[in-house]
Design brief:
By secondary structure, this protein is of the alpha/beta class. Strand 8 (about 370), helix 9 (about 375-385) and strand 9 (about 390-395) form a beta-alpha-beta unit. Helix 5 (about 185-200) crosses helix 8 and helix 19 runs antiparallel to helix 22 (about 695-709). It has helices at about 1-25, 25-140, 140-165, 170-175, 185-200, 225-240, 300-310, 345-355, 375-385, 400-410, 425-435, 455-465, 475-485, 520-525, 530-555, 560-580, 585-595, 600-620, 640-655, 660-670, 675-690, 695-709, and strands spanning about 180-185, 205-210, 215-220, 245-255, 260-265, 315-320, 325-340, 370, 390-395, 415, 445-450, 465-470, 635-640, 675. It has 22 helices and 14 strands.
């Protein structure tokens, strides 16, 4: 603006000089001035253009700077975005690794759960099937033998179903395989009918069985899977039929050397809507959840059934009318082994029962075997199964005792349980094998375990065991394994045996009523009146001893040592309660055992007081049963101090030498005297310590009594 004004002034002045020059004709000076002014004007105009060009240049520079900055910013943003993408990729990789680790941990947790469940469920089945085997061997009563055959059949089916649960992971991964073999079709049918009849009676349903008499006697296939398939369908028929009836029909046709077995289950139940039929085969899916919320089940059964049938090249067919009922059926091809018609399947089963006879395959009176198991019932079953073989059997109640026995005496075979408190079977096995100069340095050690998870055998052999025997122990397989393991010169032919006398050994009918104690369950584990009564009395003696021990370990929580000691102690209390039939108490102990194993202090703090109250209450609940707690001290003579001290010292030495009979005899003598109340209470505790074979506690109590008297 300044250059424009100055230029106009110069231009105006030059024009004025032109006018003056024309008027006065004095041109020389004015002409110079005019020229100067015009020059200044053009200089100013030029300057103005230069200024304009400079401004344009500056604007261009600024625009270039802006664009350059924008490019720099874009480059920075791109770099930041690339770094962000790289960081996200790293995070994604880390997340993927973490997810993989979590998945691996979940699989390991599932495997541990399956192993624990296998152990907990199969252990009592071992006792059931083992004792049932002894009934079948020793009884000649047809009715008792028929009942025992039913127990055997149902027990094996239950075992098979447990195996199916354990093998569900195989189905998920596509690794399930059929285990085909020869089987008796009448036995399969009888087992299905027996298991289903009880359920039908429970709901007052009519169960109609229609079996073609011309079905073959023996077939080749996987009868375990076949039984499970039909059981799942029958179970659903019972569940979803509130009233009326249901049918099991079996027939079929011959196809050269094979038989096309047709199985059909029909019911008059609630039926299925057409659009809901596909849901039957989806895992964990249940039809009309709100309507059927009171019906038990996880929704896995039909999914497993469909997959098992697919493995057998078959398919489940469904016909249903909503509100009227359903029909499930399938055809499966099985190879014929014996085409003799089954006729009346119940008669065929009765014939199989009558034909059952046990004969040991050998005797080995010079063989020495050690069986190691913390569960006394398992040891008893094992020894009973081998009684006829005349093998000399010692038993140990845990790893430490097994190591001690193996260091002092030669055994031809050692059977070792795995899951034991204090020292498990793996550690005990390794310690025995480490004693290279010991009498059992080369003794085969067979793991004896209820862990039936797939791959367990390979895992145990990799640990160093020489063989594997799964629980429940099957007599034939046990004898076969022993026959293969013992030196051949020890095996002698089994002698011909005369029929044993009939021995039904019924449970006494006049057993006292004790709250929470299930006598039939106790009799299953302790099938003898003297054995039962003695064990109940032992439990009564152990109540204060075990309760005091558990309370002491409870005070050590939450240390790692406290959790482990608590778990071991409550494990023993669980077994003691279960053995004499106090199942609810054993169930509470099991909760505490698993909580201690998982270091879950919260659960222990909540359940322990309730459990201890219930545990100690049995001192009162059991009073009067078999004379427990009714001892009359009025007829007892006062304790002779010298005799008492002598008995106590002898008792202490007997416990240190593991002379159980002598310790029991001395304890009985000590109880014949009358003591001051304070000492009398300790005498009762001493009796519990002797029963529990706890020499340390015994020494502690003996020292206390010695001081008081």
């Amino acid at each position: 603006i300044g250059l424009d004004v100055a230029g106009l002034i110069c231009l105006g002045s030059a024009m004025s000089l032109v006018c003056i020059e024309n008027e006065y004709a004095n041109t020389t000076a004015l002409s110079y001035i005019r020229l100067i002014l015009m020059t200044v004007y053009f200089v100013l105009v030029g300057g103005q253009h230069v200024d304009i060009m400079l401004q344009e240049y500056q604007r261009g520079v600024k625009e270039n700077e802006r664009k350059l900055q924008e490019q720099v910013n874009n480059a920075e943003a791109a770099r930041a975005e690339a770094e962000d993408a790289k960081e996200k990729a790293e995070i994604a990789r880390a997340d993927a690794e973490e997810a993989k680790e979590e998945a691996d941990a979940a699989n390991q947790a599932k495997s541990r759960f399956l192993a624990n469940m296998s152990h907990e469920i199969r252990t009592p089945i071992n006792a059931v099937l083992g004792m049932d085997e002894m009934i079948l061997r020793e009884t000649k009563n047809k009715e008792v033998k028929a009942y025992a055959m039913d127990i055997r059949s149902a027990g094996n089916t239950l075992l098979s179903l447990i195996n199916e649960i354990l093998d569900y992971s195989k189905i998920e991964s596509g690794k399930m395989e059929l285990a085909e073999g020869e089987y008796d079709l009448p036995s399969v049918i009888n087992n299905l009918v027996n298991m289903t009849t009880a359920r039908a009676k429970g709901k007052d349903l009519d169960f109609v069985v229609e079996i073609d008499n011309n079905l073959p006697m023996k077939l080749w296939g996987d009868d375990v899977r076949l039984r499970q398939i039909i059981t799942n369908i029958l179970t659903n028929a019972v569940k979803y039929t509130p009233e009326g009836k249901f049918w099991l029909r079996m027939n079929g046709t011959r196809d050269n050397e094979d038989f096309i077995l047709h199985v059909e289950v029909e019911d008059t139940g609630i039926g299925i809507k057409e659009e809901d039929i596909p849901k039957l085969f989806v895992e964990y899916e249940r039809i009309e959840e709100s309507r059927n919320r009171n019906i038990e089940g996880t929704g896995l059964g039909m999914n497993i059934t469909l997959q098992l049938l697919s493995m057998m090249d078959s398919k489940l067919q469904v016909e249903s009318v909503y509100g009227e009922g359903s029909k499930f059926f399938f055809d499966v091809k099985q190879r014929i082994i014996d085409d003799t018609p089954i006729g009346d399947f119940k008669a065929a089963v009765e014939k199989a029962t009558d034909d059952f006879n046990y004969n040991e395959s050998f005797i080995a009176p010079d063989a020495h075997v050690l069986v190691v198991d913390d569960n006394s019932m398992n040891r008893k079953v094992f020894m009973s199964l081998l009684k006829a073989t005349e093998i000399q059997i010692d038993d140990a109640d845990g790893g430490p005792q097994a190591v001690e026995f193996a260091s002092q005496k030669h055994y031809d075979i050692i059977f070792m349980d795995h899951m034991m408190p204090d020292m498990d079977g793996v550690e005990a096995m390794k310690r025995i094998k480490a004693m290279t100069d010991g009498p059992c340095a080369n003794t085969p050690i067979i793991v004896l375990t209820a862990n039936a998870v797939s791959g367990a055998k390979e895992s145990y052999l990799a640990e160093g065991f020489d063989g594997f025997m799964s629980k429940p122990v099957v007599a034939d397989k046990l004898e076969q394994l022993i026959g293969e393991t013992l030196p051949k010169e020890m095996l002698l032919p089994a002698p011909e045996r005369e029929d044993k006398a009939e021995d039904t050994n019924p449970m006494p009918e006049d057993l006292p009523s004790i709250e929470g104690l299930d006598w039939p369950f106790a009799w299953l584990h302790l099938p003898g009146e003297d054995m039962l009564i003695d064990t109940v009395k032992d439990f009564y003696e152990l109540i204060p001893v075990h309760g005091k021990k558990l309370a002491g370990f409870y005070e050590q929580l939450p240390s790692d040592e406290g959790f482990e000691a608590y778990r071991i102690q409550v494990h023993g209390m669980k077994s003691s309660a279960a053995t004499i039939g106090i199942v609810p108490l054993a169930g509470m102990a099991k909760i505490l055992e698993f909580a201690a194993k998982d270091f879950n202090e919260d659960i222990i703090r909540q359940v322990h007081p309730v459990f201890m109250n219930e545990w100690n209450s049995y001192r009162e609940k059991m009073k009067g049963a078999f004379g427990l707690g009714d001892e009359d001290d009025s007829d007892k003579e006062d304790a002779d101090l010298d005799k008492t001290k002598a008995y106590l010292e002898m008792l202490r030495l007997a416990m240190e030498d593991f002379d159980v009979d002598k310790a029991d005899e001395l304890m009985a003598l000590l109880k014949t005297y009358k003591y001051p109340d304070e000492v009398n209470e300790k005498i009762e505790e001493l009796g519990g310590a002797v029963t529990d074979l706890d020499s340390d506690l015994c020494n502690e109590i003996v020292a206390y009594i010695m001081e008081k008297i």
